[in-house]
Every structure is written in C-alpha cells, then in structure tokens.
Amino acid sequence: MWRRVASLSSLVSSSKSRILNQVGCGLNACQVFTTRVLNPAEGGVSDRRRIPFVTFVLGGPGSGKGTQCTKIVETFGLTHISAGDLLRKEISSNSENGSMILNTIKEGKIVPSEVTVKLIKKAIETSENDRFLIDGFPRSEENRIAYERVIGAEPDIVLFFDCPEQEMVKRVLNRNQGRIDDNIDTVKERLKVFAELNLPVIKHYSKKGKLYKIDGTGSEDEIFERVRPVFAALSVR
Ligand SMILES: Nc1ncnc2c1ncn2[C@@H]1O[C@H](COP(=O)(O)OP(=O)(O)OP(=O)(O)O)[C@@H](O)[C@H]1O
Ligand SMILES: O=c1ccn([C@@H]2O[C@H](COP(=O)(O)O)[C@@H](O)[C@H]2O)c(=O)[nH]1
Ligand SMILES: [Mg+2]
What we know:
GO terms for molecular function: ATP binding; CMP kinase activity; dCMP kinase activity; UMP kinase activity. CMP binds at residue 143. With 237 residues, this protein is of the alpha/beta class. The chain has one domain (6-234): Rossmann fold, CATH 3.40.50.300. It is built from eleven helices and seven strands. Strands 4-5-3-6-7 form a five-stranded parallel sheet, sandwiched between helices. The chain has a two-stranded antiparallel sheet with strand order 1-2. The chain is globular and about 40 Å long. The two termini are 13 Å apart. Bound molecules: adenosine-5'-triphosphate, the ligand O=c1ccn([C@@H]2O[C@H](COP(=O)(O)O)[C@@H](O)[C@H]2O)c(=O)[nH]1 and magnesium ion (MG). Residues 61, 83-84, 87, 104-105, 108-111, 116, 136-137, 139, 181, 190 line the site of the ligand O=c1ccn([C@@H]2O[C@H](COP(=O)(O)O)[C@@H](O)[C@H]2O)c(=O)[nH]1.
C-alpha cells in the first residue's frame, strides 16, 4: 500500500515539498505515517514510511465543498474527511469538548486547532485508504501550522471553490439539513471569518504552487467537470 502512495505523491509533489515533509516530521508525526510491514528478504519486519496523498478542500460556507467531495469520492476513490462532520460527531456523542464545539459552531468561529487536528489525525490513522480529501480544514494559518507540525507533512494539493458571497448565502439558507449554523447571522460571521482567516491559507498554498482554484458557480455537474481533470491528471485510481 505504501508504495502506491509514494508513487502518487511523486507525481504531484516536487522534491522540494517532499523534503519539507520530512523536515517537518517530529516524533509524533513520524509515528502517524510509519507502518510496520513484513520484510521477507530480511526475514523480519521493518519500518516503512507511509506517505498519504492529501488534498485540502477549501472555500467559503456553501461554496460546494461537501457536494464536490462526494463526487470526487465516487469517481476517484479518495476518502472524505470533513472537519465539520468530525466536530459535529463530537457534539452528538457528548464528548468532553462537545459543548465548547457547539457554541463555537453556533457563533461561526473556529474550534481550537488541537481539537480539530487530533480528530483529523485519528481519521487518517484509522483509515484503510491512503488518499484523503480533507474538507473545510485548515480554516486559519494557525490551523495550517498545527496540522503540518502534528502530521509532519504538507498537503499534496489544495482545491479552492471560488463562489460569490450572494450565491453561498443562498445555498446555505436553502440547505435544509438542520444545521445549527445555517442561519443568516451565523453565515455572516462565517463569511467574515473566511475572509479574515481562511483566505490567508489559500494565498499561502497559492504561493507554493499547490492551489487549484475552481469556479464554484454553475450546476454541480458543471463544477465537477472542472474538478475532474485535476485528479485525472494525477492518475488517481
Ligand atoms: N452548484 C450548486 N448549485 C446549487 N446548489 C448547490 C451547488 N452545489 C451545492 N449546492 C447545494 O448548496 C448547499 C451547500 O453545499 P455544500 O454543503 O456542498 O457546501 P459546503 O461548501 O460544504 O458548505 P459548508 O462549508 O457550510 O459545509 C447544499 O444544500 C448543496 O446541495
Ligand atoms: O476545521 C474546522 C472545521 C469546521 N469548524 C467549525 O465547524 C463549522 C462548520 O464547518 P463546515 O466545514 O462548514 O461543515 C465552521 O463554521 C466552524 O465553526 C472549525 O472550527 N474548524
Ligand atoms: Mg460542508
């Protein structure tokens, strides 16, 4: 399994970014991606680095991240990790952070990095897959730095669904999935937080040459036809 990931990564990662992956690897980070595999040639086991292929999926509230992730999963077989869904699960399972997370989501603010990164790390570690879409994270530069420190790697690529505010608000208010944050006051705050804290993350990855900016307007299928070539070019699946 780890060999296939390594070759996928090599398609997208420049040697520079792979060096960065290794430089950023603290002890805990290495443990995340080290897998013990049988090494018959030497008659025992050896440690091998397992390098997952990670795509961050970013965009404002209602820009269509979750919708497009579902389509990417269906077509290319990556595993979808929605940071928001992980946090909502913490609320519904009455975890120790549940009420803090609920209040933060109601206010449209950002949950502390340590909480979210821990949940994402666990989702990666417990998955059988080695190719991930991390949806709605990182939300801020602080989130990004915490992720890269704990996981010990940068994402391979970043998708950004670019959508006008008016359209995003319309979609969120029509969503009808019973989300506590799908109301006009929270959406306004989320848009503010997106502009102030999330756009700098998008700019960061743009400067690194990892960003794919996708026009998030039009039908779901039209948008997916803009996404498809990104993964098709990587020979994912
Ligand atoms: N291209 C589209 N045209 C119209 N409606 C859409 C489109 N894409 C998604 N939607 C709808 O808009 C709503 C928001 O989409 P989605 O949940 O995928 O956004 P999101 O970026 O994940 O939002 P959030 O950050 O709030 O989780 C959903 O009800 C979805 O069905
Ligand atoms: O990394 C994250 C992701 C989400 N949040 C909080 O959850 C809501 C909803 O997130 P969606 O991605 O839209 O499902 C978001 O507004 C934040 O309050 C977070 O703090 N950190
Ligand atoms: Mg979503």
